[in-house]
Amino acid sequence: MNLHVLASYVIVWLADPSPSPTPGEFTGNEDAVTPGVIGFVATFFIAALTVLLLVDMTRRVRRVRYRAEIQEKLEAEKAENTAKEQASSAPEG
Questions:
Q1: What value, to the nearest 5°, has the Cα angle with vertex 25 and ends 23 and 28?
Q2: 42 closest CA partner among 31, 50, 32
Q3: Which phi-psi region, left, alpha or beta, contains residue 34 (left: φ > 0; alpha: ψ -120 to 50)?
Q4: pLDDT tens for residues 13-34?
């Protein structure tokens, strides 16, 4: 596809008017189409649950990270003690 054809498609796409609603056209009951109190409560509930899940996830990730750090320290100490024992049990001479 060459540039001329592509440009003509873009010009046609930009020139094509998109439909837009005219103000004052709606004649129905506005309370029937708004979420109201139930919608607010549902949205608030979902937002609160999301925040609680994020806090819980952060706490769990932190706990796993701390356990891994402690495990690494214990393994390093164990390796150090093993090296000291082998050095002290080796015959001098």
A1: 125
A2: 50
A3: beta
A4: 777 676 666 676 767 777 777 7
